[in-house]
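Entry 14. Structure prediction run on the chain below.
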Amino acid sequence: MRYGVRKSAHVLERCGLALAGAACGLFVGAYVGSTIPMLTTQGFLLLMMILGAAGFYLGIDTPQMPFDDAHSRIDAAEFLSSAGTFCATLTAFVSVGVIVLREEPHILWTWLVLLGWIAGVAMQIVAGAKARWRK
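Output returned:
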């Protein structure tokens, strides 16, 4: 009985993280899409949301390295997960700020936000896959 409750709680937590990632992707997509006309499509928004959901689902709450190995070497999956989460959430925060404050930053900043988002969720996805592969 306890196992089923723990497993259900874990699945709910991971689904909540995926929803948060999708929301972050929506904000980044809305900001980038409103600035770069070529990316003003529903498909782009959907892609950004899917990337966010996948990144936050896989890349946050990764399985830890076995205790014996944890002291002898750096946990690449944990490092990628934390760096990716920081990049992805920072770009989402900047995107929300630009949207809410109705700012119009230089196009270079928009491309930087897009690249930061893609790099962040890519690091999360790779970290999640790497951590689950070593299980």
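Helices lie at 2-35, 42-59, 67-70, 76-101, 107-133.
Filed with the rest of this week's runs.
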